Amino acid sequence: MRRTRLTDAECPISRCLDVLGDWWSLLILRDALDGATRFDQFERNLGIAPNMLIRRLHGLVADGLLQRRQYQQRPPRHEYLLTERGRDVQPVIIALGEWGDRHRGREQRSLQLVDRETGAVVDPVLVDRGTGRRFDEIDVGYVAGPAASDALKARFAELAAGPEEAAARRG
Amino acid sequence: MRRTRLTDAECPISRCLDVLGDWWSLLILRDALDGATRFDQFERNLGIAPNMLIRRLHGLVADGLLQRRQYQQRPPRHEYLLTERGRDVQPVIIALGEWGDRHRGREQRSLQLVDRETGAVVDPVLVDRGTGRRFDEIDVGYVAGPAASDALKARFAELAAGPEEAAARRG
Fold it and tell me: Which residues, listed in sequence order, are joined to residue B140 by a DSSP beta bridge?
């Protein structure tokens, strides 16, 4: 079921893709963030086959993104609630949604992101927590961090040097 | 090759997942954002089979996320450059990376997000563009927007009402 890790386990993006597993899992989390908790709510909204859905739900429980809770005894019925780790996926969902809707005016949008308390429409943008500078106004990118392996450091050094130099260095 | 749309075309998240296609495409875009442009750079870093890679690259060109440009005449060689639409995927990559690294201290990180001009480490957080309020301090969520279909409006009304009421309403 679970595919092998796609790339280096050092990359937090790969790690994350490995855990989220596939688009179905992400769409289940999207529905959970919208307030869905029960099997039939996920099933109707996603149009997913029941056996596929149950497998994904169990996978998300095993990975600690959802927790399964019995809400009725006879007959036994369970609901699926987001864990803190599951709720932490919200920025990913929002970033995906923003990209999907980027070139639509507000009037053309089927979904709208709001402050649930006030109902005010919010417009998400990534900023630096410390300085408040907007990422669409500065040039941000990844570099090798303190725990990077030599291979990862070499990769970023090569990318920084540009393709010609890298090819020359490899001979 | 391309799977059918997973769910309602109204959802910007589904639309986005449909275009990004699969994890490989997202990892190619991650590498492109890191500065990779050439076939062998993607191939070595991803450890992907050449025929798989070429298919994904062509898909990303067809979807307008990469553009293919000849950089050498004899023998003909091409590179793949991010379009503006491709660069717009960066917040998704950053959100995925943050989720993957959320519980690691800075010293444990293999990758570090920096302001490329100053080298300063930046710490991404989503805020509302208008008010600057941090999304981790307010309760944000999706509601039906101005262009929502009746079906989508009904779905959100049902989720807002809670599962018991919804089941009762359906009989």
Answer: A115
